[in-house]
Predict the 3D structure of the following.
Amino acid sequence: MGARAETSAPIDYIALTRDRYDALGYPPYQWAELSDTPPWTPLARPLAESTVALIGSGGAYREGQTAFHWKDDTGVRRIPSADPATDIRVTHFAYDLEPAREDPNIVFPVDRLRELVDEGVIGGLAPTALGCMGGIYSVRRATEELAPAVVAEVTAMDVDLALLVPV
Amino acid sequence: MGLVARALEAAGVPTLCLTSAYSITASVNPPRAAFSDLPLGHTVGRPHDAEFQRNLLRRALTAAAAMDTPGTIAATGVTWDGDGSWKRRATPTGIESGEPVSGEPVSDASADGDRGDTRNVRVDTPQYQYESDRLAAESGT
């Protein structure tokens, strides 16, 4: 049982999910498994001069926006990155939301990234951050709906690095 | 997010994926990733611990800037404090005891009322954090 990890090793969530599904009598979950060399774009400039776009898939939306639903919502929310995290709300079906609702920065670190700009670690933060909801059960819908929507938003931003924060 | 990272990178945008689920990230094999050994739902660290969160981000970003091989997963070295007991609560004994077990995607099997399945039911209406959010969104303000 690979899922029962030693406490010093990372938890194997794939093995854990397989074991849980077996125990519950569910058919096995098919994980996206890609062993090819991933696409690659080199960084154009040093980190301290790079503008970073934040994209979080923990279900972040801004107060006033329509919340995500929990059944394969492939929508994207534009969240002004100058707004404090206290304006951010979090919704998701698959993880314990209480800690992230207490401090949205743990899944959508806008306050921290602004501080890293002030520290000079990164050059800037894109004015718009993107919130979406992971846990899309269809690789096809993630590939054909969510990914192109994020690509369209981010390529229009003219940023040097996209920071992706899943849950 | 690995699929999104691959699409961005193919479109000419460098990416870095944070992760606290090593095996899931390794399976989808994104261009650049930085692993921190933290409970799910805490990808950037502990709530209201700004320095913990900044330290994680600094380490992850610095590691990403040094990567030159597609498919690299760097370890930030950031871990939860204490004796790792959070992991025992997130492994199979947790299922039998009914303790919460969180995890990203699982299957389309219905979650309703299934013994030991602690995920929320996947409803297709907006799930607001606060009722006031619903009112604000529905009034278009």
Observations:
- Residues 2-85 of chain B form one domain.
